[in-house]
Amino acid sequence: MLRISRSQLVHNIAAVQKQLAPSALMLVMKDDAYGHGVDTVVDAALVQPGVALFGGYDVDTSLQIRSRAGSGARVFAWAIARDEEIRRALREGIELGVGTSSYLERVIVVAAAEKQTARVHLKIDTGLRRNGIRTEEWPDFVARAVRAQFAGVLSIVGVWSHLAEASDAEDDVSASEFAQAVEIVRAAGADPASLHLTASAASWWRPELRGTVCRVGAFCYGIRSAEGPEIPGIRPIATLESRVLAAENDVAHIGIGALHGLPSTLGGAPVATLGGQRELLRIDAVTSAVRGWEGMRVGDTVRIFGPGDHGEMDATSLAERNDTVGEEILTRLTERVRRVIEDGDGERVG
Ligand SMILES: *Cc1c(COP(=O)(O)O)cnc(C)c1O
Fold first, then answer.
1. How far, in Å, from the CA of 184 to the mean position of ligand 1?
2. Is the C-beta atom of 213 inside 6 A of ligand 1?
3. C-alpha angle with apex 309: 289 to 252, nearest 5 degrees?
4. Ligand 1 neighbourhood includes 260 CB (under 6 angstroms)
5. Closest C-alpha to 18, from 30, 10, 28
6. Protein residue with least CA distance to atom 3, ligand 1
């Protein structure tokens, strides 16, 4: 099961907000809140003073956030959506990230048909080449959006981009391109309040790159960057554990395997047992084999990752063994893994 500490999540969110202030936190919740569960995370995020802005990635996730968080929260969806999704998003006041001209046109058409004003964040490509308007095309794109704003169909509430985070120097260039893009929007007659460029690492470590908003997922969940340092005041919120189902010949068989989303590449990793760290020998379909320990018994708990209180590694340390990121280990866990939410005072099953 995946134990999720709600109090640690509340604590992490508060620590991130404090670090970023006066910039506002946009809590990023893609992939079912990085495998922790959207509803669980929204509930924790609304504990006072609370998160005012959520990043849902796609429209479905954003609508789920809206229904859990209520009408007071701002919710941002940046995946390119189908017209039907745009319609639903507009009705629920979801803000849309727009980074291609054809998508801008579709949003304008749907908003006009729905007699709605679409609240949009325009995306400039500052070097990542994923999606976003190239600098050469930015002035025309902005002019089109501003005309639609004058017509009442759009409201330009934000400008955003995504950093490559390959090097500080490249990110500095991106930041200056971003600042110029914002100037072009202002010169065209719009005044967007939400300017956002940075995700967890740059938001935390590079204050000079922060806009008025920072989009942060990983650090709120206590997932540090691969090859990155511990983050002061932040700890993982999730512990993946399993029980010993059978113990024989110096091997303990635990009840989690590949079909639960445990990557088979974790073979050889150390996990925490009641006898100390032991090697995860093999990952089978629904079970895994762990090197045994003195006095092992059926029902004993084995911890695969977590905050480290019982000698388990954090998800990022496991990921680093395979050149991947901690997020990937969490988001791969399937629905077969029961999520248990702990409040500090008792627990309830989520
Ligand atoms: C996932 C994502 C983020 C959050 O990244 P973290 O490193 O988890 O904080 C921010 N912005 C965009 C566009 C993303 O896709």
1. 25
2. no
3. 15
4. no
5. 10
6. 199
70 CA from centroid of ligand 1 (Å)? 23
What local confidence, expressed as pLDDT, does residue 55 receive?
98
Q: What is the token pair recorded at 214?
A: 């920072």
Q: Whose CA is nearest to atom 13 of ligand 1?
A: 162
Please report how the helices 38-45 and 59-69 are oriented relative to each other, as an axis angle in degrees rounded to 10.
50
Q: How far apart are CA 104 and CA 187, in angstroms?
A: 20
- How far apart CA 279 and CA 267 sit, in angstroms, is 8
Whose structure tokens read 């997922």?
Answer: 217
- Minimum-distance ligand 1 atom for the alpha carbon of 218: 8
What average pLDDT does the segment 105-132 reach? Answer: 94
Q: What is the pLDDT of residue 349?
A: 43
Atom of ligand 1 nearest to the CA of 223: 8
**CA terminus-to-terminus distance, the chain:** 11
Please report the atom of ligand 1 found closest to the CA of residue 219: 9
CA distance 122 to 286: 45
Rounded Cα distance, 137 and 158, in Å: 18
Distance CA 58, CA 51 (A): 19
**Helices and strands of the chain, counted as H and E runs:** 11, 17
Residues 232-289 pLDDT 10s:
999 999 999 999 999 999 999 999 999 999 999 999 999 999 999 999 999 999 999 9
Pocket of ligand 1 contains residue 199 by CB under 6 Å:
yes
- The model's pTM: 0.95
**333, 35 contact by CB (below 8 A):** yes
Which residues, listed in sequence order, are joined to residue 74 by a DSSP beta bridge?
53
Residue 346 three-state SS: strand
Phi-psi region of 164 (alpha: psi -120 to 50; beta: other; left: phi over 0): alpha
Q: Decide whether any atom of ligand 1 lies within 6 Å of the 16 Cβ.
A: no
Q: How many CA atoms lie within 13 A of 333 on its CB side?
A: 25
